[in-house]
Amino acid sequence: MLILATFLTSCAGVKTLEIFKKEVPRENLNLAKPTPLELENLRWIIITSENAEEVFKKLEEQGIDPVLWGLTDKDFELLAKNFARIRNQLKITNDLLDKYKEYYETPVKKKQ
Amino acid sequence: MFGSLKIAMVAIMITGIAGAGMYVMKLRSDNAILKANQLKLESAVADQQELLESQKKDFEEILGANKKMNELVSVLKKDLEDLDKRFNKKNRDVGKLAIAKTKSIERITNGASALATRCIEIASGSPLTEKEKNATKKSEINSECPSIANPSYVPY
Q1: Residue numbers of the domain that contains A97
Q2: pLDDT tens string A49-108
Q3: Per-position DSSP letters for A55-95, written without gaps between them
Q4: Cβ distance B110 to A43 under 8 Å?
Q5: How close A26 comes to chain B (CA, Å)?
Q6: Within-domain flag for A89
Q7: How far apart are CA A101 and CA B62, in angstroms?
Q8: pTM higher than 0.90
Q9: Residue A98 domain-assigned?
Q10: A9-43: pLDDT as tens digits
Q11: Assigned domain for A99 exists
């Protein structure tokens, strides 16, 4: 009788609720950002049909080979614009990288 | 016969009392488990709330980042338009100007080239100098890329 009572009461038992929660965060990539560029300044020389001789003479006087790579005014404009576009793209990519790093590599607690 | 009936009755009573006792003990144990479950559920709800808050913050951060990137794209676009204006403002012909004022256009070109070079350095992540940070006047700014070189400058 006692055994029967024990079995009966055990049948309707309440089970302990177990909640498993284990989050293993992915390791941060932590790649170092590329070193910012340090560029050399270059010198532009404007040559016209009038000053060409003078320009080459000055180059020779300064010990520089009297040879120049030329651009028309239109091509110079295009070069300036191309550089501005490259610069803009570089800035956007760099900022995008910063944002991703900030978002994914900042601990959640710190973000709050 | 009456004696064995008595014994049976006593046995039933003892079994009953023992069963009741065990049942009460089980109820108490169940109660303790239920309380623990309740606590766990409350904690799970709190965790969910925390998760929702964290998600909300993430969404805000994503929106903020998007907004900042869009702003950056538009100011950079404006820098490019300004450069175009410098070449073509009021049908300006840089070639003719260079023929007429060779030396001064050469000086201006070299100055602008140095500023543009600095712009590329900044775009690649070079930190701004104090002078660049504090520039507010047209004469102080990097006219090639004020949007990224001079954060204090407000165009006027």
Answers
A1: 70-106
A2: 999 999 999 999 999 999 999 999 999 999 999 999 999 999 999 999 999 988 888 776
A3: HHHHHHHTT--S------HHHHHHHHHHHHHHHHHHHHHHH
A4: yes
A5: 17
A6: yes
A7: 13
A8: no
A9: yes
A10: 555 567 777 778 888 877 878 888 889 999 999 99
A11: yes
Q: Please report, for residues B28, B66, B77, B95, B148, the alpha-carbon distance to residue B71 in angstroms, rounded to integers and kept in the order given.
A: 64, 9, 10, 34, 12
Domain count for chain A, please give it.
1
With a CB cutoff of 8 Å and minimum separation 6, the contacts of A70 are A47
Cβ within 8 Å, pair B124-A10: no
Determine the residue type at B17.
I
Nearest to A37 among B58, B121, B145 (CB): B121
In a domain, A19, yes or no: no
- Distance, C-alpha A74 to centroid of its chain: 32
Chain position carrying tokens 């038992």: A13
